[in-house]
């Protein structure tokens, strides 16, 4: 059964980037260890602690497809056509880009909404999980009851302001299960099941 897993690296006060979209020290844990880890792009190798490497191997090996928003796509240039995790990326957008230099990359632009993107991603995942990024997209998916689990990589930093993990989420409240906890180096990995309302 395909699980929709929302995941993000987040500050202690709930931000996934500062107000200029920079991640600052949030991603330092991807380079503070001696265990190499590679997600989907062989040119993007992280060096993390042993605990974080085991956590990432377990999590990322389950992901078949990712769903992201247009903002993240634009900020990363779609990782130059190579999915950061999984085999395919569905981008939720109002308009598909007409000038992206990687037209044959495994990216699908979905213009008829988040629910459609998640349904299409589930169909393409081949029984593996669907990854969903943080921000407004996550808040909308949580409000619509489309998220099965939440994975948070909690970093000991306080931003004070920036891009919120759940965007402009306004409820209703989402009930989560007790966390599974993995302590890394300068990061705590948390996994919560999302209970249906």
Automatic annotation (TrEMBL):
GO biological process, one term: riboflavin biosynthetic process
GO molecular function: 5-amino-6-(5-phosphoribosylamino)uracil reductase activity
Annotated InterPro entries: DHFR-like_dom_sf, RibDG_C
Top-level taxon of origin: Bacteria
Span of domain Bacterial bifunctional deaminase-reductase C-terminal: 3-167
Protein name according to UniProt: Deaminase
């Amino acid at each position: 059964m395909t699980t929709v897993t929302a995941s993000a690296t987040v500050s202690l006060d709930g931000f996934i980037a500062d107000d200029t979209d920079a991640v600052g020290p949030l991603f330092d844990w991807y380079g503070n260890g001696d265990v190499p880890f590679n997600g989907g792009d062989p040119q993007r190798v992280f060096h993390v602690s042993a605990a974080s490497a085991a956590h990432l191997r377990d999590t990322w090996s389950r992901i078949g497809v990712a769903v992201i928003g247009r903002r993240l796509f634009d900020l990363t240039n779609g990782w130059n056509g190579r999915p950061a995790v999984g085999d395919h990326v569905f981008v939720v957008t109002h308009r598909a880009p007409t000038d992206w230099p990687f037209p044959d990359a495994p990216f699908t632009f979905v213009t008829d909404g988040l629910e459609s993107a998640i349904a299409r991603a589930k169909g393409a995942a081949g029984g593996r999980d669907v990854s969903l990024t943080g921000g407004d997209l996550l808040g909308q998916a949580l409000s619509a009851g489309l998220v099965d689990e939440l994975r948070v990589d909690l970093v000991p930093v306080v931003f004070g302001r920036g891009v919120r993990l759940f965007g402009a989420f306004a409820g209703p409240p989402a009930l989560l299960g007790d966390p599974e906890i993995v302590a890394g180096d300068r990061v705590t990995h948390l996994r919560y099941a999302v209970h249906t309302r």
